[in-house]
């Protein structure tokens, strides 16, 4: 299990924005992952999608890593932000955009 934790830790620390999701940003495999992808794409934020379906160790490991039971999981600059509901609520309130700005991540939204 340490391997999966190491992989997760590396992804979280080496990418400004990481989404652990079911499927890929191009082909999300669940509605919740798809919603977060749509929000990130709308904001024009560069991010890395990690497909948890490709590795059972990572799929279970990410839940242990964050102590959060569901996927997708969004990380910004090494900090766990939340899953689909939290990300959507933050986006609708403008808090997600502010978080990216505070962390120095360029948002290129059209709205």
TrEMBL record:
Keywords: 2Fe-2S, Iron, Iron-sulfur, Metal-binding, Redox-active center. Pfam families: Glutaredoxin. InterPro entries: Glutaredoxin, GRX_PICOT-like, Monothiol_GRX, Monothiol_GRX-rel, Thioredoxin-like_sf. The keyword Iron applies. It comes from the Bacteria. [2Fe-2S] cluster binds at residue 30. Transmembrane segments: none annotated. Gene3D superfamilies: Glutaredoxin (3.40.30.10). GO terms for molecular function: 2 iron, 2 sulfur cluster binding; disulfide oxidoreductase activity; metal ion binding. Residues 17-81 form the Glutaredoxin domain. PANTHER family: GLUTAREDOXIN FAMILY MEMBER, MONOTHIOL GLUTAREDOXIN-S14, CHLOROPLASTIC. NCBIfam families: Grx4 family monothiol glutaredoxin (TIGR00365). Belongs to the glutaredoxin family. Monothiol subfamily. This is Glutaredoxin. It comes from Microvirga subterranea.
